[in-house]
Design brief:
Elements (H helix, E strand, L loop, with lengths): L2 H7 L4 E3 H6 L16 E4 L2 E3 L7 H12 L4 E3 H7 L9 E5 L9 E5 L6 E4 L2 E4 L1 H9 L5 H13 L5 H10 L5 H10 L5 H12 L6 E2 L3 E2 L5 E3 L3 E3 L4 E5 L2 H4 L2 H17 L2 E5 L1 H6 L1 H16 L7 E2 L4
Parallel strand pairs: 5-6, 13-14
Antiparallel strand pairs: 1-3, 2-3, 4-5, 7-8, 9-12, 10-11, 10-15, 12-13
Length: about 300
């Protein structure tokens, strides 16, 4: 049997041992031995080359191993939705009793949740993917970062995540705790900012609110806004604010603050995490300075 014909019958170069047998290759495993031209991906699943598999080939092999009706969830589904998930396991939900192996997790569930075609693969909703990914995490910060990214990028809402956590309560304590702790914060850093603000009794009801000048023109949307003195607090992450375009936007935002007479405290997330005492002193000093001068004529834009 010519290799070109085998590849035509494969999916991205991935093929089952059963299909190979029907094509005249009764025993493919010697070819999958060290130094051979092929490789064994999972029991009964072969990749028709011996180089590193692509992510799509890895997922194709996992779905072939899982059998009909399997859908992609967890970290791999998060990545397919464009979300940052570092874990390398492939987590599939299956209607049968197939067993996983190594980094392949096959979880039997009934009914199998709905999926949609994402890049040619059956992928569950972003909310279900995030909840399932968090079930394998031990770090609240890692879970918070993923949940915040999903919400910020519009992949799902807090209500979507809460509904999934209620429906699938097994192993979702971390998700429910993070959602409760996150509140209105939009990132791990903002969650830490909420905590610091409470600890130093410098609280504000205005988080991620919009500020406008007397002419109604929008100035900015600070992470925290202390309305009584007109002080803005921005948690500026290099990862999100210091690409070329984001850097330009940050400079333009700071110029609008200055033109409106608004004092602004800028804090890096790493400084907030590693040196909260120093950030506390800076924030208190800025608040005193803001209170010592006339409050600028700006206002919070009420959402109707």
């Amino acid at each position: 049997m010519r290799i070109e014909h085998l590849r035509e019958r494969s999916d991205l170069g991935v093929i089952s041992a059963g299909t190979l047998k029907s094509l005249g290759v009764a025993n493919p495993w010697p070819r999958c031995a060290s130094g051979g031209p092929w490789q064994r991906m999972y029991p009964g699943v072969v990749l028709l080359h011996n180089g590193p598999p692509t992510p799509d080939q890895q997922l194709t092999a996992a779905l072939l191993r899982a059998g009909p009706g399997a859908v992609v969830t967890g970290a791999e589904a998060c990545r397919r939705h464009g979300l940052p998930a570092r874990a390398q396991e492939i987590h599939l939900l299956v209607p049968n009793t197939a067993r996983g192996t190594g980094t392949l997790v096959l979880e039997r569930t009934s009914p199998v949740p709905a999926s949609s075609d994402v890049g040619g693969f059956p992928v569950v909703s972003a909310a279900r993917a995030v909840v399932d990914a968090c079930r394998f995490m031990r770090s609240a910060d890692e879970a918070t970062a993923l949940i915040a990214a999903a919400i910020q990028r519009g992949r799902c809402t807090p209500a979507d995540l809460q509904a999934e956590a209620r429906t699938n309560r097994f192993g979702t304590k971390l998700v429910r705790t993070v959602l409760k702790d996150l509140g209105r914060a939009e990132s791990v850093a903002e969650r830490d900012a909420h905590r610091l603000s409470r600890n130093i009794r410098l609280t504000t009801p205005h988080w991620n609110t919009t500020i406008a000048g007397p002419d109604g023109i929008i100035i900015a949307r600070p992470d925290a806004w202390y309305d009584d003195v007109g002080l803005a607090w921005e948690i500026d992450s290099r990862a999100f604010h210091y690409g070329p375009r984001d850097y330009e936007r940050t400079l333009a935002r700071n110029s609008r603050y200055a033109a409106a007479g608004i004092l602004v405290v800028q804090t890096l997330p790493t400084r907030l995490r590693d040196h909260p005492d120093a950030v506390e002193r800076e924030l208190k000093a800025a608040r005193r300075a803001a209170a010592a001068r006339p409050r600028p004529p700006v206002h919070v834009v009420e959402v109707t």
